[in-house]
Amino acid sequence: MTTRADDDPAAGHARTLLRAATRHSVTRCAALCLVSTAATGAQLLLPATLGRALDLLLAHAPATRWVLYCAGLVLLLAVLDAAQTVLTGTVDARSTAWLRHRLTGHVLGVGPRAADRFGSGDLVARLVGNAAEAGATPAARAALIAALAGPVGGVVALGLIDWRLAAVFVAGAPLLALLLRAVARDTTESATRYQRAQGSIAAALAEAVEGFRTVRAAGTEDRETARVLRPLPGLSEAGHRMWRVQGRAAARAVAVAPLLQLGVVAVAGVLLTRHRLSVGEVLAASRYAVLATGVGVLVGHLAGLARARAAAHRLAEVGAEPATRFGARRLPDGPGRLELRGVTARRGGRTVLDGVDLVVPGGTTLAVVGRSGVGKSLLAALAGRLTDPDAGEVLLDGVPLRELTHDDLRRAVGYAFARPALLGGTVGQAIGLGLPDPCPERIREAARTALADDFVSRLPGGYDTAVADAPRSGGESQRLGLARAFAHGGRLLILDDALSSLDTVTERQITDSLLGDGPGRTRLLVAHRSAAAACADAVAWLDGGRVRAVGRHEELWRSAEYRAVFGERTDAPGTGTGRSVPA
Q1: What is the pLDDT along the chain (583 residues), one digit of tens a residue?
Q2: Cα(32)–Cα(28) distance, integer angstroms
Q3: In angstroms, what CA-CA distances link 104 with 96, 109, 119?
């Protein structure tokens, strides 16, 4: 069953995307179209000029001027061909860069949903490989006009020489039209399958590279290699199918085009014997017959456009994913009171959080605990609107997060993660990421609070050391992520398991600094250790997608099920020894 284009939102979005990419380089596309058309015009003039020169030479008449015309046309064709090559490369590069810039910004605007739906590896394949293929569309469309002008002009020129020559060609034209239509249809289908297989391989490869330590430790390199390359037969089959499609098209062109050319030349020969045509006109007619049957050029253009259309459809699938929209309200002054009202969130068809109601008074610290998979990180993402709930709403100082402006929301909320991505050229820039005015003293003070200043100062360039050249452990990376969160400021600080790689002493020192950084800052802490939970003003215990209890850690510790969240720990709450003893 074939899906209509009108029923496919991505198809409409793909057309819009390609039109926008064309508008981005509209001047160069117009120049390319003019240059290509001029080159086609020169190609159409050359056979007539050659024929006229030949007739004059055979008649022993002066032909110098016409020979010079021929030389000038050949030189003009060389110049136009060079200009066409330069313009095509320029338009392709500009269109590809524009598509990558637009889609990358959109992916970042969509947030985690994009990676959840497509996978990081497949996203990279789309934004790199498919964007390059789709970026060739504006230039290909501009050149297609000239490619069509060649056969049309050839038929017209044959008609001008003698209408019977054009009639011979037109009689076989429907076969060429059917051939081109089949090529476009079959190539699009094969290209779509090929690009999907490429995306599957890229997604599996990204997962394997990210977990290479686990793969190496488990000794499963061969198994992972087989998993990554599992779509390879499908990729090979789709690739071979594309070659077969183009091969069949070339074979049919070889069968049809020469027959048409032979028919034109045969009729021209008959007319020559009857003195209806000159020798030069027969030469011109033979050249125009070649131009009129330029199926090879059209097949190449149509195959390229078919691959580009399939690539644009894959980009449009990403673009059709709705980006986060922000409101127009400003955040009023307030202590940073965080409230979740009936928040429900689903992931992968499963309800992870179900009607969660939770209040974090301004200036206090709430630790969120629970077994693995209960939605702690999802709740942290909802609290700062890294993602939106499927139902319910999240408020900060009485204002729903959906209604806040982008700048107000991001200024108000700071984040630190278990595995922070350190973006920026240098360590100092990574800590000051997102700050409108990242002054060195503020960055250094934040690093001191996160206990990162000592090891950063020992780096070869200190805070000016390139991130890629800064060797660091997992705990040191976490401290840089914490420093970035501390430098950010804001009234709400969310730590999503951001202390998990720290040793017990460092964790306690940072926790003390965190809780003592002054009033007016609310803190939401996803905790996996009892010591971290014990330092909070209150603990929210998640269980089965709901808040099972909220209270002080020492109060909840009386429950054996609560202690089981931390691995059956029975040490006194808040001691932070991390030792387990039999229950």
Answers
A1: 344 444 566 777 888 888 888 888 899 999 999 999 899 899 999 999 999 999 999 988 888 999 999 999 999 999 999 999 999 999 999 999 999 888 888 888 887 778 778 877 788 888 888 888 889 889 888 887 777 788 888 888 888 998 888 888 777 666 666 666 666 566 666 777 777 777 777 777 777 776 666 666 777 778 778 877 887 787 777 777 777 766 666 666 556 667 777 788 888 888 888 888 899 889 988 888 888 776 556 666 777 787 888 888 888 888 888 888 889 999 998 899 999 999 999 887 889 999 999 999 998 999 999 998 899 999 999 999 988 899 999 999 999 999 999 989 988 998 888 888 888 788 888 888 888 777 888 889 888 888 888 888 888 888 888 888 888 888 888 888 888 888 887 899 999 888 777 777 787 877 777 766 545 589 999 988 888 888 889 999 999 889 999 999 999 999 999 999 987 544 444 444 333 323 2
A2: 6
A3: 12, 9, 14
Rg (C-alpha) for the chain, rounded Å, is: 34
Task: Report d(CA 292, CA 303) in Å as an integer.
Answer: 19
DSSP H helices, 111-228, are: 112-118, 120-125, 131-134, 137-161, 163-210, 212-218, 221-228
126: exposed, middle or buried (Cβ count in 10 Å: 0-12, 13-18, 19+): buried
- The pTM assigned to this predicted structure is 0.71
| First-last CA distance in the chain | 62
